Structures are given as C-alpha cells and as structure tokens.
Amino acid sequence: MRKSKLHQSGFTFIELMVTLVIAGMLVAVGLPSFGSFMERTKLTSTTNDYIYSLHKARSEAVKRISGAGLCPSVNSMDRNAVCAVGQPYSSGWIVYADENSSGVFDAGEEILHRIESRTDGFVFTAPAVFSEQIYFDESGNSVNIADLPVSGTISITYAGGNLGRNVIVSANGRVVSEEQ
Fold this sequence. Notes:
Layout: H1 13-64, E1 68-72, E2 93-97, E3 111-115, E4 123-125, E5 134-136, E6 142-143, E7 152-158, E8 163-169, E9 175-179
C-alpha cells in the first residue's frame, strides 16, 4: 500500500472565522477612538491655522513698520476678498498689511494670508474688541483702531462644544493657546 505525499496548505474554515471575529472586535473597539482622534486633529489644525495667521500679522507689522491685521472674511479665497463685519471667524479670514496705517483693511491693500471657511462644526467666540479684527501696530502690540492696547481670548470649539481651545492675545502681541 502506497501513501500519498500530497500536502495541502491554507487555512481551515474555523481558523478563518476565528480571525474574522478577532478583527471585528478590534475594529469595534478602535472605531470610536478613531472618530474622537479625528475631531481632536481637526480642532488642533484649525487652532494652529489661526495662531499662524496671528503670528503672520504680527511679524509683518513689525517687518513693514506698519500695522497689519486679521479679520473675518466670507470671501477669503477670492482675489478681491474683504473683511466681513459681523461675521464669525469660522466663515474664513484674511491677514492684511495696513499700508496706509488707517487701522482697517482698505481696498487695494495687500492680502498676506487667506484661510477658507471652517463652518463644519467650528464655533469661534471672540470678545467685542476682536469681533471685527485683530490688529497689530508697528511694534507688534495688539491695539484697537484708536491705537489703545487690547487683549482678549478667542474661544474655538468643535463637535458641539465637546472640544475646545482658547487663543489668548495679550496687549503686547503675545499669542498663546490652551485647552478649555
């Protein structure tokens, strides 16, 4: 009697099913964490964009020895973008060089940086002194249109207010971020 030397390789049905059950349990455990991770990442990204824009405005004001500001803009990505009084920063924003030192963005002034709308769940809450713009003078100080020092905290929340960061602008122009 002769024995067959045929060798079969592969997985049995039982081994395959056990592997799929384990993979399913790992996905079920990891998926909610991944969603939370993505929300935190979006908040961090938006906060970093906002802080970068503030730093850009401040550094350009010092470099140009002229004011520069950041203001909300509903058409920030358009060639002729303008500041939008009464609109939240979540509608987008622009950083501009105040070439005539008027304290506000005027037609024809250079737009240095543009950020598009962040309306997908973001809420920016700015104090009255920063609701229309955040302006830096030639020394890098945060000032209002009357050239008086101002400071305040802009709150950025996401996911129905479950996640948030505060961006603090000091009168000396220093910008810091902290968790809510």
